[in-house]
Amino acid sequence: MKQRFRNLILLISLLLLPATLNYLSPYVSIDGAMNGIISGSLLLFILLFIFSIFLGRAWCGWLCPMGGLAEFTLKINSKNVNIKKLRIIRYVIFSIWFSVIIIMFVFAGGIKGINPLHLTENVISVDAPMRYVIYYSVLILFLVSNILIGKRGACHSFCWISPFLTAGYNVGKMLKIPQLRVVAVPEACVNCGSCNKKCSMSIPVSSSIKDGLIKTSDCILCGECIDTCNRKALSFGVKLSSEKKI
Ligand code: SF4
Ligand code: SF4
Ligand code: SF4
After folding, report:
1. Residue 21 CA to ligand 3 centre (angstroms)
2. Which residue blocks in 77-202 are alpha helix, DSSP H?
3. Residues 87, 96: Cα–Cα separation, whole Å
4. Tens digits of per-residue pLDDT, 23-55?
C-alpha cells in the first residue's frame, strides 16, 4: 500500500514536469547567476539542501519527477550499479557546474535579487515549441541513462541536485541533528537478501544494518526494503546518523 502511494506521487510529479522543469534546471541557475539573480531552480536547490538536513534524500524517493522516471525504468533494467565509480562522475559534473554559477555571480557583481520566475514568466516551464524540445531531450537523457547504466543510473552518475541533498544530510550529521532513517533490528535479520534485490539505489542493505540503521547518504528513504522484509527487521525511525561509505 505504501509503495503504491509512493508510486502515485512519483507519477503525478513526473506528469507535472512540463510545468516544473525550469525549477529543476541547471541552466536556469546559470542564466540567473549571469544576471546576479537567484532563480527559482537555485532557490529550490537551496531549499532541498535545508530539507535534507532533517529528511535526508526523501525528496529522491518520494517527490522527484526524474526519480519517478527512474523507478518506472527499473522494469526494463534492474541491474545493480557501481555506486562508488558513478559517484566520481557525478561530483566532477557538479563541481564544474557549481563553479560556473559562482563565477557568473562574481562577474555579475554579486547577488542582486531573487526571482523565482526567472526565465519562467508564465509560471509553466514548457510554454513554447522550443521548450518541448528541451523537455523531451531531458526525458530521453534520463530514460536512456537508466536503461543503459542500471538502477537509477542517472541519479548516481550525473544528477546535479543530489550533491545538495548529500551535503544537507552530511551537515545534519555533523550538527548531530536527528534525521529520518531506515532503522534495523539486526537480530531479526535472517540474511534472506530480499531487501538487497529491492533497493533501487543498489545499497547492500542486509550487510549495512549491523549498526542498527542504514547510514549511507545514498539511501532515498523509499521504504522498499522495509516493505519487503517479512521478518520486520526494518522500519523508519528518527535517529542520529553517521556517514559510512559503501
Ligand atoms: S538523484 Fe537527482 S534525479 Fe535522482 S531522484 Fe534525486 S534529485 Fe531526482
Ligand atoms: S529482507 Fe529482512 S530478513 Fe531479509 S536480509 Fe533484508 S533485513 Fe534481513
Ligand atoms: S536502503 Fe531501503 S529505503 Fe534506502 S534506498 Fe534502499 S530500499 Fe530504499
Report:
1. 26
2. 83-107, 129-149, 153-157, 162-174, 194-198
3. 14
4. 999 999 999 999 999 999 999 999 999 999 999
